[in-house]
Write a structure and sequence with these properties.
The complex is a heterodimer of chains A (251) and B (320). Chain A has 10 helices and 2 strands. Chain A is mostly helical. Chain A has one domain. In chain A, helix 2 crosses helix 5, helix 3 runs antiparallel to helix 7 and helix 5 crosses helix 6. Chain B is an alpha/beta fold. Chain B folds into 2 domains: 233 residues, Rossmann fold (3-Layer(aba) Sandwich), CATH 3.40.50.300; 64 residues, Alpha-Beta Plaits. Chain B is 38% helix and 28% strand. In chain B, strands 6-7-8-3-9-10 form a 6-stranded mixed sheet, sandwiched between helices. In chain B, strands 2-1-4-5 form a 4-stranded antiparallel sheet. In chain B, strand 7, helix 7 and strand 8 form a beta-alpha-beta unit. In chain B, 38% of the residues are buried. The chains are: A mainly alpha (251), B alpha/beta (320). Chains A and B meet through helix 1 and helix 4 of A and helix 2, helix 3 and helix 4 of B.
């Protein structure tokens, strides 16, 4: 294992998003806060799963930001170096597929965590959201953010231009994260959509994450951990296989 | 002791790069059609060929940027696929295109690149030395975006050397570079070669290969058409050029002279003479006999460029 190499890439990826931190951390926090203000107003006075609606929104928005930013970090970094041509400097090095994978996913999780933590701290000025099961929060953050970071890496491998990425992001990631219970409990949905939601892995990511805060949710937290974990392992093995075969990146 | 000697000898004679039956097929092209040759340790090797001959594809396969469809490449005893870590540590490649990461200033980018190879802080003095030797010290904190083309080229060379590789491949390093920088780079690569590094150079400037390389391979249409010592290659075509400046109103030149004419420009004739068959004295006598005065005479040995054109053009005719 080339730890030094892996750590260097991890560090470089952090430096990359840090150098445009307003765009990579500031902007997503502001977006999430705007959702919070608008939906908080609309749902004012209501409770969901016994939790005041404004507090209920916080973990959902955090997970939505984690999902979107994990995906954005890996996908935009890889696509940019692919289009720029400087990916060769990485591909010529003695880094293995697993080391490249680990560094990219790790840096993506750092960005997602940063967004989530800042968002949590800012929202605590207006609402109180307890952290009932910190370990569950952390696990769901790693599995949820990790899964989307891996999907971002896969999208980056597949994309030939930024347009492809935008399509993936707007037609797949956005709807999936919006329609997975960020703003509502699935019990408020018609029965058909309640069932449909149970086939959506992102639903488990959000529900499990929220249970880590409030201790209540739509699904058994253990099931959420298992579903998100299995999904993480599944997409990871696809991604590592693609990287080690050099699919679309090594001529 | 004897066994040790044999092992040592075996180690020394092991090629820097061994290329074995390497093929590369793309959907519509057969870029490399089973190329095999060795690049020896410590030599300055020239890899030439017209555009689209497969040079860059071969370099990409050596560097691990592209996988060969068949065959294999071994760098200092390490297969580029199976033992990719050791093979890549032994290799530094300067890519043809001016590609760079826009996010980082020069020194930091070089430190990052060294880090990928597992080289930490102990390598930083070497990076500073590289900056110094390539005249980049005052650009160390400047972003790559702000550098001129020539400066970017220097950074690419530094980047290929950060991990002190034994074998250095330069893919057209002097394309679009001014004369001064070209001289600097020649000097620099020759120093590297003197220090024991194996250098592989691809170039479109044949005088560059002629000046620098010990051995030369010419790739053409995905095949190895020539691999020879530079001297042997230059002597392989035993002809020379004779340039004559004529005056007077002579008549038709005899056929024995006409067939030798390569180029005709106003009063100047350029003739190609084969050694042992066409003699300067005979040619001059025949021209005088046709009623011309010879004002000036110059002779020139064939350059690598002449040989290159001849070899690659003949091939084209055969193919057609």
């Amino acid at each position: 294992m080339n730890w030094q190499g892996c750590f260097t890439l991890f560090f470089k990826e952090i430096r990359r998003f840090y150098s445009v931190i307003l765009q990579t951390v500031g902007a997503p926090v502001v977006t999430a806060l705007l959702y919070m203000v608008v939906f908080g107003q609309v749902l004012q006075g209501q409770t969901i799963q016994g939790v005041p609606s404004s507090a209920f929104l916080v973990p959902g928005l955090m997970m939505m930001s984690i999902i979107q930013n994990s995906f954005a970090n890996t996908s935009s970094s890889l696509t940019q170096s692919k289009i720029n041509g400087n990916l060769v400097f990485l591909l010529m090095t003695p880094l293995s597929a697993f080391e490249i994978y680990l560094a990219y996913i790790g840096a993506s999780l750092v960005r997602a965590t940063l967004v989530a933590v800042v968002l949590y701290l800012v929202t605590q000025l207006f609402v109180t959201v307890p952290i009932t099961h910190p370990l569950l929060v952390l696990t769901m953050l790693v599995f949820g953010g990790g899964t989307l970071a891996v999907m971002g890496l896969i999208a980056g491998i597949l994309a030939n231009k930024f347009d492809h990425l935008a399509a993936f992001q707007n037609f797949f990631i956005m709807p999936l994260s919006f329609l997975s219970g960020v703003f509502y409990s699935i019990h408020s949905l018609p029965e058909f959509w309640q069932h449909a939601s149970r086939f959506n892995p992102v639903f488990y990511m959000i529900d499990g994450f929220r249970q880590g805060f409030f201790g209540v949710g739509d699904s058994d937290p253990l099931r959420s951990v298992v579903v998100a974990g299995v999904f993480f392992v599944l997409v990871s093995s696809i991604c590592i296989t693609m990287l080690s075969r050099g699919y679309k990146i090594r001529g | 002791m004897r066994a040790l000697l044999i092992i040592e000898r075996g180690f020394m004679s092991e090629p820097a790069i061994a290329i074995r039956n390497v093929e590369k097929r793309y959907a519509s092209t057969h870029a490399l059609k089973g190329v095999s040759f060795d690049i020896r340790r410590g030599e300055y090797f020239g890899l030439l060929g017209p555009n689209g001959a497969g040079k860059s594809t071969l370099i990409s396969i050596i560097a691990g940027l592209t996988h060969a469809s068949a065959g294999n490449v071994v760098v200092l005893g390490h297969d580029v696929r199976r033992d990719f870590r050791q093979a890549r540590r032994a290799l530094g490649v300067v890519p043809q295109e001016l590609v760079y990461d826009p996010f980082f200033p020069v020194r930091e980018m070089l430190r990052i690149q060294a880090g990928y190879y597992g080289c930490g802080r102990d390598h930083w003095p070497w990076i500073d030395e590289l900056l110094e030797r390539l005249d980049l010290t005052d650009k160390a904190e400047v972003s790559m975006r702000a550098l001129s083309g020539g400066m970017k080229r220097r950074v690419l060379i530094a980047q290929a050397l950060v991990h002190k590789p034994d074998v250095v491949i330069l893919d057209e390093p002097t394309a679009g570079v001014d004369v001064e920088l070209r001289r600097t780079l020649w000097h620099f690569t020759r120093d590297l070669n003197d220090a024991g590094h194996t250098i592989v150079l691809t170039t479109h400037y044949l005088e560059e290969a002629e000046e620098l390389c010990d051995r030369i391979a010419i790739l053409d249409h995905g095949e190895l058409s020539v691999l020879e010592d530079k001297r042997a290659l230059l002597n392989r075509h035993p002809y020379r050029f004779l340039s004559l400046e004529l005056s007077g109103n002579g008549g038709q030149l005899p056929e024995s002279v006409e067939r030798l004419i390569e180029d005709r420009h106003e009063d100047t004739l350029e003739l190609k003479l084969e050694q042992g068959r066409d003699f300067i004295a005979d040619v001059m006598e025949a021209i005088r006999g046709a009623g011309y005065r010879i004002q000036d005479v110059r002779t020139r040995e064939p350059s690598l460029e002449n040989i290159f054109v001849e070899l690659t053009t003949d091939h084209d005719k055969d193919a057609a």
